[in-house]
Amino acid sequence: MKHQKKETCGACCSTKTPAADSEKNTMLRDGIILIIALVSLVLSFLISHFHIHVPFFPLITDPSWFSVIFCGWPIARSAWRAAKARRITSPMLITLAMFASIALQVMTMFNESLGGHAHSYIFAAGEIAFLMALGELIEARTLSKTRAGVRSLITLTPKQALKKNGAEFESVNVDSLQIGDIVLVRPNDMIPVDGEIIEGGGAVDQSSMTGESVPAEKNTGDTVLAGTWNKSGSMIVRVQKKSGDTAIARLIQLVEEANSKKAPVVRIANKWAAAIVPSAIIISVLVFFFAWLALGVPALDAVIRGVTILVVFCPCAFGLATPTAIAAGIGNASHRGIMIKSGAALEEMSHIDTVVFDKTGTLTAARLTVKAVKAFGMDDDELLKLCAGAELYSEHPIAKAILGYAKERIEIPVPEDTKSLAGIGIECTVNGIHVLVCSFDALQKSGTDYSAGAAFAAERLEQGETLVCAVAAGKFAGIISLSDTIKPGAAGAVETLKRAGCKTVMLTGDNERAAHRVAAAVGIDDFYHSLLPADKAAKVEALRDSGARICMLGDGVNDAPALALANCSVAMGALGSDLAVETADIAFLNDNVSLISGLVKFSRVVMFKIRANMALSLTISFAAIILSAFGILDPVSGALLHNLSSVTVVLNSAALLPRTKEYK
Questions:
Q1: Which domain holds residue 589?
Q2: Average per-residue pLDDT in the chain?
Q3: Which of 362, 412, 469, 663 is the most interior residue, by most CB within 10 Å?
């Protein structure tokens, strides 16, 4: 086998994106501007505080002009654009406050009683601009961190693959691969495609996609995903999806959706911010007349108090309260293998009071295991040999479960004259004995006397297990019982949800006994069995009509109708279920059902942060209005108080990024 030599990791993946470089350069530039602005403000403060003589200070030579120009100009430009579009935005009020401070300096430059040479309202304008720019930089930094986990997937998107061309493998662009092409993946290479292993295998590190730290062993017949790493062994993979349809491509789409959609609470905050701007202007005028006419202060002093209102009433902290918390919440979840499509989904999750689970693939692993082997007229190992031998060449999930169990205990014989009987089972000869392996229903219909195993069968059926029966040489030989495995963490997740005040419901197409077994094992409050996909959707709709706020968890195509009708929906193991992930609001990139309880609690924490941020910003604004009206705050101290509240709000939201206790 001949292929090209591997040169660097860059041969198969890209480590940078233009967007990432642009964002980094922008943040660096803004950081330098902030440093220049801060130095200018410090110089202005020192000149004023120590009464240093500087010609034409403060109107012309105040160093604070650097902050006004470098930090204030982008704000003023944004305000102008909004004005042309006939939109009211918070930059308008910030710009008005800066210009009012500058105008105030002009008015007071000849009036020593109001400050004269030693006092600078240019400093106030520069302070407003600087602290606003600082808040925006912190916000940008917070948003950048929220995208870091997802960007690591996007930047590591494979670019090259080793495609089979005759007897050799040649390096080609991943975008050129077609479904059915054959590619080689060497040890320590990134897997470039979503496909099926047709030869070889190895340990695959899927942590970047699923959050699972332990590499998964992949063998012939298993599926592998683009963007994961082959840590050991060579494998030949048949392409199953084009590059634009791979799991990693779907992740990129999810990120774009999350960035473009806003939560309803964001829209409310924006609406309030637009209302605050004209309100601030009106209140500023009222405070001027209140101070001048009611309190009897000089007109120019009343103007100062009115300008201070404009400074302290900017809705900056209020406007930052929601988007920073939503962005930090989505970023936190992405590091745990949870893709939240929008802020609206995160907000809706915080309101749910009922969690509805699909059974197979959600609460259970959709993987059968042997629970008991019971022989009649022979020993258990002999029965296991007959059944395992009969199932040796079958691809049925039941056959795989029996073979996996048998390989650890016996030597499996090779069957002869194997025949698959549709709707019944398998017929063959094993060690010279004619064997029929069938379902319990088929056994009953065959007329074979199974009275010796009737009690055992009834006991296992009562526990919701699946029965495989064996008939050897025309006589009933025994029963192997199987059941699907409950996922680790399922019971804990249900218990945590109950403590959080959520009702739990399970929907399944399985029979009543199987449904009851799983529901009892994990502690589900209520369950519905023997449901078709349309029946599941109808149950979800009925629960919604009764007033419940539903979160539905499912993993497959048959769950899509129910997912679509829930208030909020989660696709389990979304990397393998196209329709589920397209329908759901949130996608778990792995099969860890215990994430749901942490997500519910964390979403409530995010909404609490948003409300706390809003309350903080409004409280500070109203307190500052009163203090300004009575002359306790001036534009300088008012700007400091107001903008520090903005910084506090952003830092409070950023604290969500490393938060982990809800998931423990």
A1: 336-364+487-601
A2: 82
A3: 362
Nearest to 328 by CA among 610, 581, 132, 642: 610
Strand 364-375 with 475-486, pairing = antiparallel
Instruction: Give the pair of three-digit tokens for residue 132.
Output: 């606003």
Judge whether 48 and 41 are in contact, CB under 8 Å. Answer: no
103 Cβ contact partners less than 8 Å away, ≥ 6 residues apart? none
User: Percentage helix, strand, coil, to 5, in the chain?
Assistant: 55, 20, 25
pLDDT digits (tens, 9 = 90+) for 206-253: 765 654 555 777 888 888 888 888 887 889 999 998 887 777 776 556
Marked catalytic residue, from 358, 510, 555, 634? 358
Is 591 annotated in the active site?
no
Q: Are residues 412 and 387 in the same domain?
A: yes
Q: What type of residue is 533?
A: P
In a domain, 517, yes or no: yes
The domain boundary, picked from 424, 455, 486, lies at 486
- Summarize pLDDT for 92-121 with one digit per residue, the tens: 878 888 898 898 888 877 665 444 444 688
Please write the tens of the pLDDT for every residue from 277-316.
788 889 999 999 999 999 899 888 888 898 888 888 766 6
67 vs 143, more confident = 67
pLDDT at 13 over 80: no
In a domain, 95, yes or no: no
Count up the domains in the chain and report the number: 3
Alpha carbon distance 283, 308 (integer Å):
11
Give tens-digit pLDDT for 451-493: 999 999 999 988 878 899 999 999 999 999 988 888 888 999 9
Same domain, yes or no, for 400 and 453? yes
In a domain, 235, yes or no: yes
Q: At 16, list the tokens.
A: 């940078």
Two structure tokens written together for 298: 């000089």
Residues 346 and 493 in one domain: yes
Contact in structure between 438 and 391 (CB atoms under 8 Å): no
- Residue 626 resides in a domain: no
User: Do 467 and 539 belong together in one domain?
Assistant: no
DSSP character for 567?
Answer: S
